[in-house]
Design goal:
mainly alpha; flat
Amino acid sequence: MVWDEWEQLKSEAADRRSTSMQLNHVPLDPGGGSTGGDLTVDHEDLAAIGDKAFDLWDSLGNHARDAWSSSQSAASDLKGQGFNDLGGALDHVQERWEHQLKSLLDACAHISNHLDFTKRVHRGNEHFISGQLSSIATLDKGFDEGTGG
């Protein structure tokens, strides 16, 4: 590769980079209501999301299998009447539903449990940081008293 080709390839790569999207910050209130800075969440937000995930898990666990026995009975009846393909298809649909349901239940439980854990960790971190800051304030006060005369 000659030097001119190398320079051309570098220039083309730089041009492509300048037109690509990069999301690494929040713009300072471009009319969208954002004031800039990091995203924040408080304990009430986490609790609400965790509660909704638990409610979905509970509801699905209680009601998502309501049609299971009638579907299995229908599939068996269809096979018994010579509709093997149709009965087998209904069995397959029921198996897929159960597999997807288990995945969704696991995901809801994971979200709920993770948010409960996150709330506990953040509460502990806030307690620790508050203790550290109050210790610093006590030290500062002691220094101020010693120099103020």
